[in-house]
């Protein structure tokens, strides 16, 4: 990392997990075949266990031909396209393809997920899946589809072994902690997950479907009103860049929204590649951030506020454990990088707990996970390297011999 012209050496990757050094044994020859896959709603990352950088990072999208020639049975449908090629096809031939992100709703898109993963194994990683041990970093909302994934990986891809870990757990471990409250604000969901000694307290977990996607929708509506001439791919990129640069979470939302003076030019204007600029109004800028905190009020729907979910997760566990959660809140996920979000969460959470005498004298500590928004895969890479975690992997022979595969899955996986 470069700071002021000087190169600063990053801390050793594996030393981040304090107290786990004795478990991080060198990978054996077989263990070098462990591949870590992070199945995010919009991004797929893959690499070897123990590696800091992924071998593959691609948009988790599929472009499928929208044209079927029913009169010519000899003509096969054009092949599916994936990742950047899929996005490019939509830019150049948008009427010939439909673009989808299967991991946004995996239960309904298992066929697309299967062909995408086949492409990943064979074309991108150059590996025969039947020789691999897989460690899957998935969304907390994907727990209900784990059985389907098990069937796919063992019966279709014939992998040697398999394990799963939710991305909020991986993010907390990457922050060097085994106890704390992991708060992941991603594209498709916002999750608060209490973790104690490396185990998820599932009864205290909370999840909302209102997250980064809804911030994007607010920006998208404003850009659509501008009537710009853009390809679908260019429009998606513009929405993402505008949201990342201009959207913010205010400490004084109502007051700042009511002010009449203009925001500084750099806080309300975005320059396009052709050097023209688009200007966002105050409501769009603040609502694109505020929807992450209070989706119910901004969208007019029944939805939990982010701080309410954090409060419920902290107070749902026993008192001693709840104080540990209060002292170690870790934020992760792409939408958690929104300007001002960390300060707002700290401010609102302090106000909510001000009337709780059991937390008097306990310091509220909130921080972002290292390498966020990539903390899920990096933490998963670290977790997959731990020998005691590898012992929990489901082996192909165990899966084939089990009479109760669903119960076996939840017994063995993290």
Secondary structure layout plus pairing:
Blueprint: E1 2-3, E2 6-7, E3 34-39, E4 43-48, E5 56-59, E6 62-65, E7 81-82, H1 83-92, E8 97-100, H2 110-124, E9 133-138, H3 146-156, E10 161-166, H4 167-174, E11 180-185, E12 190-196, E13 199-200, E14 206-208, H5 212-225, H6 232-246, H7 253-258, H8 265-268, E15 269-271, E16 277-279, H9 282-293, H10 295-299, H11 306-315, H12 319-326, E17 329-332, H13 341-353, E18 366-368, H14 375-383, H15 387-390, E19 394-395, H16 396-401, H17 405-412
Parallel strand pairs: 3-9, 9-10, 11-17, 17-18
Antiparallel strand pairs: 1-2, 3-4, 4-5, 6-7, 6-8, 10-19, 11-12, 12-13, 12-14, 15-16
Helix/strand structural class: alpha+beta
Low-confidence stretches: 1-30
Which percent bin holds the helix content?
A: 25-40%
Shape estimate: flat
| Largest sheet entry | 6 strands, mixed
Strand order of the largest sheet: 5-4-3-9-10-19
Total strands: the figure is: 19
Helical stretch tally: 17
Nearest-angstrom radius of gyration? 23 Å
Quick check: average pLDDT? Answer: 85
Strand content: 15-25%
How far apart are the first and last residues' alpha carbons, in Å? 33 Å
């Amino acid at each position: 990392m470069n700071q002021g012209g000087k190169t600063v050496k990053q801390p050793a990757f594996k030393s981040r997990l304090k107290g786990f050094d004795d478990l991080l044994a060198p990978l054996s020859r077989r263990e070098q075949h462990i591949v870590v896959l992070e199945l995010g709603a919009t991004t797929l990352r893959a690499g070897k266990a123990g590696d800091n950088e992924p071998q593959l990072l691609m948009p988790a999208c599929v472009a499928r031909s929208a044209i079927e020639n029913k009169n010519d049975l000899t003509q096969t449908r054009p092949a599916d396209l994936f990742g950047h090629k899929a996005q490019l096809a939509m830019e150049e031939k948008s009427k010939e393809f439909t673009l989808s992100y299967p991991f946004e709703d995996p239960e309904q898109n298992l066929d697309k997920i299967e062909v995408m993963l086949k492409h990943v194994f064979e074309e991108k990683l150059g590996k025969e899946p039947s020789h691999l041990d897989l460690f899957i970093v998935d969304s907390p909302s994907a727990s209900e589809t784990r059985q389907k994934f098990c069937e796919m990986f063992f019966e279709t891809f014939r992998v040697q072994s398999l394990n799963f870990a939710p991305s909020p757990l991986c993010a907390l471990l990457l922050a060097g902690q085994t106890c704390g409250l992991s708060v992941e604000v991603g594209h498709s969901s916002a999750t608060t997950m209490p973790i104690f000694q490396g185990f998820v307290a599932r009864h205290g977990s909370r999840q909302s479907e209102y997250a980064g996607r809804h911030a994007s929708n607010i920006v998208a509506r404003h850009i659509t009103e501008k009537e710009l001439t853009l390809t679908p791919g260019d429009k998606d990129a513009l929405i993402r860049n505008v949201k990342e640069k201009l959207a913010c979470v205010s400490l004084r939302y109502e007051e700042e929204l009511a002010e009449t003076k203009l925001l500084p030019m750099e806080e309300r204007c975005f320059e396009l590649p052709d050097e023209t600029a688009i200007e966002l109004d105050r409501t769009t800028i603040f609502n694109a951030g505020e929807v992450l905190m209070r989706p119910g009020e901004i969208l007019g729907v029944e939805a939990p506020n982010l701080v309410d979910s954090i409060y419920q997760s902290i107070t749902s566990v026993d008192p001693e454990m709840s104080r540990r959660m209060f002292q170690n809140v870790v934020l992760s996920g792409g939408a958690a990088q929104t300007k001002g979000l960390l300060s707002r969460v700290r401010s609102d959470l302090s106000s909510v707990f001000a009337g709780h005498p059991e937390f008097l004298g306990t310091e509220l500590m909130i921080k972002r996970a290292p390498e966020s928004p990539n903390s899920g895969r990096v933490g998963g890479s670290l977790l997959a390297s731990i020998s005691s975690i590898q012992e929990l992997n489901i082996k192909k022979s165990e899966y084939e011999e089990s009479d109760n595969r669903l119960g076996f899955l939840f017994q063995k996986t993290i």
